[in-house]
Design a protein that fits this description.
The protein is α+β, with helices and mostly antiparallel strands. The protein is about 30% helix and about 25% strand. It contains 28 helices and 40 strands. The chain is globular and about 90 Å long. The N terminus is likely disordered.
Length: about 1050
């Protein structure tokens, strides 16, 4: 006898929003061919103060619909799962609601590190003051190799617990330890958490969150995520408990309850109560996935169809917020890059690229003598009681919409709002709503072309039928419950993120084991075995750490309907869970006083901004710093490490009153002493072990050594000026940081010793000129943890590099280095001039492209800033496409690898290319901005070999595509698009930001830019030998100049206001 299909085939999707609770019952087996899309019942009902009431009302109503139309279907026997999505948690954060957010203390186990960058330093001020109640640093933390920075000191933690208790009102404590995600031996966060729980009272009095349980590597971003997670825990437990209770009271025995995550997959309810932050973006994700489900497969030309190959905006208007995302032609949301941002807080989650504003159907409308304002606060679920339409006393956007559109007769009692606004106020209301929605759509776009917009969500009624920036406005059937549909069709996934030693096994062997582990975890989480596939793989060798590789593998699959009833909570487990959380019914700690308003800092107009240059001294502002930081990463050519942490540190100095000055190389006296300082080590370490005092410690020790031992009296004097070792990456800011008035109080030279980033110290222009040798000794390095190495003499600059690199692994793989000063005359001969200015101009170009909504041409704008725009000029766009492969290996502390990019038109946000190579990709960029014939990139491939930094951009001939790694032929000279010492930079096509080699990942849309190297490198054979192909092992290729070098234009020369 043939086996019968499982009777449990129906899925319930429920989305509990701030205003409405939506639901669907969906039969996936009918989705592909039935006009109903498999939707058997749907409902939209008001969210209730107790979410369980709204869930019960929604599901009960749908059961009634189902039984009326399908009498042979019995819900208790056919429901496979209940999946719930909610915006409750993210709404609390966006609204800055103190009744739902608890005060949090942060204990850093970081020893001397991170002292200059306190917790929540990069948050909006109102968010920081609302949530952060206390913070302290204590001993603890690991080095990247797993050894101790220092062990925790119980007495220190006990003393900090006393301080936390004194302050009162703190209901959660976050423990954040350096490199805690790899801490499987010392378990510092877990041990510290046990002490905190013991000292701060019984169960339920204080929540303790270990950062490693929330996010992965990235100290600041992980801490940010852990703090938000801790702040929302009490509200989350109460909310999720009510979800479980609602389903239990409906008699759905043996039916599992899931919560949707940020990535559109599901999380078991108990786990979601511990990690509510992983649901923060689930509402918008569900809406976008639901929208894709509703429009997929419809024919071109239909009113509500999605045109094949066309990107679409999804505008989800709920009761409290409007969320906008870009739906790619494949039906999935566009993803953010390595870091995501929510309510101004930067985190390291992989999330869909969603922008939110406080505008929804329940947003409160206020009238004043200056006109009307809308939101960001909302009546939320109370709309059916508090809105005027329903007899309440609060004017909402829905009230005003009904007043402005007499044709809307299905919402409340229109007679109750007839005098709510004057005609002039009504027009003003319509203008504000339209403007808010059009502005957020405009901000999401990466090119000025209009795109179709799908309106979904219960608050969509407030949106106009036409929007500037939208080629058409679509509202498909069932769009009002798109978020519930997205929840119902959510998949199952699992991620394995681990670091392994590759001494005993190869990376390939480990990868196969980890893939298997990820697949098994996904199946265990409820996926059907035949549907599970590995969807994401990353291998990241750790620089300057021998035989260590970080593996990140994600697998995903469809929910297994045939066994869903066996994977559910039984009554005993459900009741015990309810009892465990039922004791915690107290309200979250609130802040005495009025609710803080959203921060409204004055915004600088980047289109008209001019820097402050007075008497040929450039006084750096925060705006300048932002521009320079962005430009430094572009000039880093994939290496140098992200400047973000260095930028935050320098910004803190500026905000504390320090001044930072930059001067032209030409204005430096010949007799000056120009010092240099830099950080050396692994970028992986720099994002985790934040800078302490090692940079200044190294300077202090260097000048002690110089004053006591140097026979060259010209080097006995302390530096009068500072210069950056390399403008590329985080070191591009170190000259300004060391020279700040709160540190050495000396000006920084507008230039550096590389004009880019290079992996070794001997790849610098003073070594190229070779007027004296060695140039880089004496040298001092400090690790910030009490260890200092001073090297008074060296046989050569290559020896300096080798010895310092060898010491690195014993000094935590990150040090601050101080180099001996050179004379002003020497500096003028050796310096790559005006590179701080160049970084500023590149960063300004990116900021202007964003402000003008011209990210589709950001690469061309960067090229023009570097002297491109004509044939044979200094820069050009080399390629546009999608990263389709990344290989990495570690040799002598440096990460070698190769990035494969497949050509495509990145401006249209397409994610696939045609097999015949046809396409219109990158029309402007394909010229290289040099007048050459336009050639599309679609159907072509290039590879970028790298050694920390990018080495070259090389075409991959079509016939090489089928060869395996071992049979690949050596690259041919005619396939070289650009090669060192010229700069090869990769930027994110959707943000304009640089992409570092550690951030290369499959699927990222990128643009490759080539910039001609300084003539300080290309003007001699020695320069080409030290910085060119041979220095990276590419002896079979020769340097062929990309174009004619153009000296960067000095900001000081252009903007000086001399008195």
């Amino acid at each position: 006898m043939a086996s019968q299909p499982s009777p449990r085939r129906l899925r319930i999707g429920v989305d509990v929003g701030g205003t409405n609770t939506d639901g669907v019952i969906l039969d996936p087996s009918l989705a592909s061919f039935s006009p109903s899309r498999g939707i058997l019942a749907h409902i939209k009902t008001a969210t209730t103060p107790n979410p369980s009431d709204g869930i019960m009302t929604a599901i009960t109503s749908m059961f009634t619909q189902l039984e009326a139309t399908n009498a042979d279907i019995h819900p208790e026997d056919t429901i496979a799962s209940v999946t719930i999505g909610t915006t409750h948690f993210v709404n609390a954060v966006i609204e800055r609601d103190p009744s739902r957010l608890s005060r949090v203390a942060v204990l850093r186990l970081s020893g001397p590190f991170s002292k200059h960058v306190p917790p929540c330093v990069d948050w909006p001020e109102d968010m920081r003051s609302l949530i952060l109640g206390y913070h302290a640093r204590v001993k603890g933390g690991l080095e990247v190799d797993g050894s101790l920075i220092s062990d925790i000191d119980e007495s220190e933690i006990v003393e900090q617990c006393k301080e936390i208790r004194k302050r009162g009102g703190i209901k959660a404590v976050v423990i954040n330890s350096v490199f805690s995600p790899i801490d499987t031996v010392y378990r510092q966060e877990e041990r510290a958490a046990e002490i905190v729980r013991r000292e701060l009272g019984g169960q339920g009095e204080v929540d303790v969150v270990c950062s490693k349980e929330v996010a992965n590597l990235g100290f600041l971003e992980r801490e940010n995520a852990a703090v938000l997670n801790a702040s929302i825990l009490r509200f989350a437990r109460r909310t999720i408990r009510e979800f479980r209770q609602a389903v239990g009271r409906l008699g759905l025995k043996g039916v599992p309850v899931f919560i949707t995550q940020n990535d559109g997959t599901i999380l078991e309810g108990e786990k979601a109560a511990e990690l509510p932050i992983k649901t923060f973006s689930s509402g918008p994700t569900n809406s976008m996935r639901g929208a894709a489900f509703l429009v997929q497969g419809q024919k071109d030309g239909k009113k509500e169809g999605q045109v094949h190959g066309e990107a679409m905006m999804v505008v989800d208007i709920g009761g409290t917020t409007t969320d906008v995302g870009l739906l790619l032609p494949n039906g999935f949301p566009r993803q953010q890059a390595a870091y995501s941002e929510l309510a101004g807080v930067r985190m390291n989650f992989s999330c869909p690229d969603i922008k939110s504003i406080g505008l929804g159907g329940g947003s409160i409308v206020r009238k004043s003598k200056n006109g009307i304002t809308i939101g960001p606060d909302s009546v939320g679920y109370k709309i059916n009681k508090e809105a005027l339409l329903f007899g309440g006393s609060t004017l909402t956007t829905t009230d005003c919409t009904v007043l402005a559109n007499p044709d809307i007769t299905s919402i409340g009692d229109a007679s109750l709002v007839k005098d709510a606004l004057t005609e002039e106020e009504t027009q003003q209301f319509k203008t504000i709503v339209r403007s808010k929605i059009e502005k957020i759509i405009d901000n999401m776009k990466t090119s000025p072309e209009d795109l179709p917009a799908i309106l979904v969500g219960g608050g969509a009624v407030i949106a106009p039928d036409e929007l500037q920036g939208a080629s058409k406005v679509l509202k498909p059937r069932w769009s009002e419950v798109a978020n519930a549909i997205g929840a119902a069709i959510a998949r199952v996934s699992s991620v394995v993120d681990t670091i392994k030693s590759t001494e005993a096994k190869t990376e390939k062997q480990f990868l196969e084991e980890i893939k298997k582990d990820a697949i098994e975890r996904t199946i265990a989480a409820g996926a059907s075995p035949e549907s599970v596939e590995v969807v994401e793989v990353e291998m990241l060798p750790l620089q300057y750490v021998e035989n260590k590789t970080r593996f990140v593998v994600r697998a995903a699959g469809d929910f297994d309907f045939t066994r869903s009833y066996m994977s559910s909570d039984d009554d005993e487990n459900a009741s015990s869970e309810e009892e465990a959380v039922g004791e915690d019914l107290s309200e979250p700690q609130t802040i005495i006083g009025t609710k803080p308003k959203a921060a409204t800092p004055s915004e600088v107009n980047v289109l008209t901004y001019t820097p402050n240059v007075l008497n040929r001294i450039w006084h750096i502002s925060e705006t300048d710093l932002t521009f320079i930081s962005t430009g430094c990463y572009i000039l880093g050519t994939g290496g140098g490490g992200s400047p973000y942490a260095s930028m935050i540190l320098l910004r803190q100095l500026l905000r504390s009153g320090a001044s930072v000055r930059v001067v032209s190389p030409a204005d430096v006296p010949d007799s000056a002493a120009v010092g240099c300082g830099c950080g050396a080590g692994s970028p992986t370490v720099s994002i985790e072990k934040l800078q302490g005092d090692e940079m200044m410690q190294a300077q202090t020790e260097l000048y002690k050594a110089l004053s006591s031992s140097s026979s060259d009296q010209s080097q006995n004097n302390k530096a009068t000026h500072m210069i950056a070792l390399e403008i590329g990456g985080g070191n591009g800011l170190q000259g300004m940081t060391l020279g700040a008035s709160s540190n050495m109080d000396i000006p920084c030279v507008d230039g550096d010793w590389m004009g880019r980033a290079y992996p070794t110290k001997w790849q610098t222009t003073p070594v190229v000129f070779n007027e004296r040798s060695p140039i880089w000794s004496p040298i001092a390095v400090a690790d910030g943890n009490g260890n200092v190495l001073v090297m008074p003499k060296a046989a050569s600059d290559a020896a300096v590099e080798k010895i310092i690199r060898a010491a690195l692994s014993q000094m935590g793989s990150q040090v601050g280095a101080a180099d001996p000063p050179v004379t002003g005359a020497e500096m003028k001969r050796w310096v790559v001039e005006n590179t701080v200015s160049q970084a500023w101009r590149l960063g300004r170009a990116v900021a202007r492209a964003r402000a003008m909504n011209r990210l589709d041409e950001v690469a061309e704008t960067i090229v023009e800033e570097c002297g491109g725009g004509q044939k044979g000029a200094a820069a050009k766009v080399l390629f546009k496409g999608k990263i389709v492969g990344v290989r990495r290996t570690l040799r002598m502390g440096h990460v070698y690898g190769e990035c494969i990019i497949e050509g495509m038109d990145v401006t249209d946000d397409t994610t696939s290319t045609t097999n015949d190579g046809e396409g219109t990709g990158g029309q402007r960029g394909s010229q290289g901005v040099d007048g050459e014939e336009k050639v599309g990139f679609t159907g072509k491939r290039i590879k970028i070999p790298f050694k920390n930094e990018n080495i070259a951009a090389i075409r991959i001939p079509a016939e090489d595509g089928s060869k395996d790694d071992e049979n690949q032929e050596l690259e041919k000279q005619e396939d070289v698009l650009a090669i060192v010492p010229d700069l090869i930079s990769v930027i994110d096509a959707q943000s304009g930001e640089a992409v570092g080699t550690p951030e290369y990942r499959y699927g990222l849309l990128v643009i490759v830019i080539g910039i001609a190297a300084s003539d300080k490198w290309t003007g001699s054979q020695r320069g080409i030998d030290l910085g060119g192909p041979k220095a990276f092992g590419f002896d079979h290729l020769k340097y062929d100049p990309l174009g004619r070098f153009v000296k960067p234009v000095s900001v000081i020369d252009e903007f000086d206001r001399s008195i």
